Amino acid sequence: MAEAVVKDQDPFRCSICLDLVKDPVTIPCGHSYCMKCINGCWDEESQKGEYSCPQCRETFSPRPVLKKTTMLAELVDKMKNSAFQTASPPPATYAEDAVDVECDFCSERKVKAVQSCLVCLISFCQTHIEPHYSIPALKKHKLVHASTHLQEKICSKHDKLIEVFCRTDKKFICMLCIMDEHKGHDTVSAAAERKEREVRSQSRSAQEREEQSEKICTGLLESIERRLSEVKYVIRAQQKAAVKDAEDVLEKLEQELAELRREDAELEKLSLEEDHVHFLQSFQAHQSSVSKTLPAILLSPYKSFEVLGKSLSALKSEMEEVCKQNIMKISQEVTYAEIVLHQKPNTREEFLKCK
């Protein structure tokens, strides 16, 4: 697989780290590498007693003595000072399967990159990523999902991976920065800072939910108090109307009673009349003047009070049920948030399994 890499490789790039060669050395087969890279490979092969070229697989024994290739080093230095160092790959004909992140190692036909190397700062397709799985020195490189923002993950000052957060200056830095301008600062790993922010976010979210719940409950209580005042007003109005009706009925009853007493007195006086003709005449006249029988006045309690009591009782039961259901729902959501924070299930189904 290393041979496949050579076909598309820049001759000034080390096929191990895939960067411009640093302290270039040329081994007996003619291939050139960074002195550090090839020494790293051969250190791992020292137990076998044979040392091979990562590209052509030619073996050497004993271990070749490495010397810096001066001419190649000068050429690389010139390249670093030219536009080739930072220029993008030359325009190429993009294949139909090209995506936003292309393989930086493909020279002609750009294909989809599957992973990016934070050491090489290059994105690789499935074919060109293989050396990172087979070459011992490359296995130590950190691979991530293909990204177009590799430079954002590298410290611009030290060219090292950014993996530390400085809480003093509130910025992400590399390990060398801790011993440089951030010496003595409050620093933590990026992973620890992420965890801390997640915890703070969850705590803030929980506090906001608590304040929101308190606000809703306060509003509900105020609404209930307003409705209670309205109910009291209705009850007092009905009570006042009932008392007025009762007073009116009582007044009518007193009038009827006085009229009945007057008629009773007249009848008693008429019963003492001895003249039969006069009696009959007076009695007939009395009968015509007697008030017609008054309709019965019934006093019945206001049934609306009973209906109101039933309505309030039903409302109380409904509110208790709604509160119970919502409290259960909130409790489940809080439990889910805690599990997501600590156990991080991938799906809600996994969450349900955790319960």
Explain this structure to me?
By secondary structure, the chain is mainly α. It has a domain at 2-77 and 90-150: Herpes Virus-1 (2-Layer Sandwich). The chain is 52% helix and 8% strand. The chain has 10 helices and 10 strands. It has helices spanning 2-8, 35-44, 70-80, 131-134, 136-139, 175-178, 190-271, 276-289, 303-342, 348-354, and strands spanning 24-26, 32-34, 51-52, 59-60, 115-117, 122-124, 143-145, 164-166, 171-173, 187-189. The strands form 4 sheets. The protein has a 3-stranded antiparallel sheet, with no helix packed on it. A 3-stranded antiparallel sheet has the order 9-8-10. Strands 1-2 form a two-stranded antiparallel ribbon. Helix 7 packs antiparallel against helix 8 and helix 7 (190-271) packs antiparallel against helix 9. The chain starts with a helix and ends with a helix. Residues 1-8 and 83-99 have low confidence and may be disordered. Residues 236-275 form a coiled coil. Keywords: Coiled coil, Metal-binding, Zinc, Zinc-finger. Residues 150-190 form the B box-type domain. GO terms for molecular function: zinc ion binding. Residues 14-57 form the RING-type domain.
SSE arrangement, N to C: HEEHEEHEEHHEEEHEHHHH
CATH architecture level-2 label of the domain at 2-77 and 90-150: 2-Layer Sandwich
How many helices in DSSP terms?
A: 10
- The overall pLDDT, averaged over residues, is 76
CATH superfamily of the domain at 2-77 and 90-150: Zinc/RING finger domain, C3HC4 (zinc finger)
> Strand percentage, roughly?
5-15%
What oligomeric state is this? Answer: single chain
Uncertain regions: pLDDT < 50 for 5+ in a row? Answer: 1-8, 83-99
CATH top-level class of the domain at 2-77 and 90-150: Alpha Beta
Q: If strands are numbered along the chain, what order do they take across the biggest sheet? A: 6-5-7
CATH topology of the domain at 2-77 and 90-150: Herpes Virus-1
Distance between the termini: 48 Å
Silhouette: rod-shaped
Please compute the radius of gyration using only Cα atoms: 50 Å
Structural class: mainly alpha
- Major pleated sheet: 3 strands, antiparallel
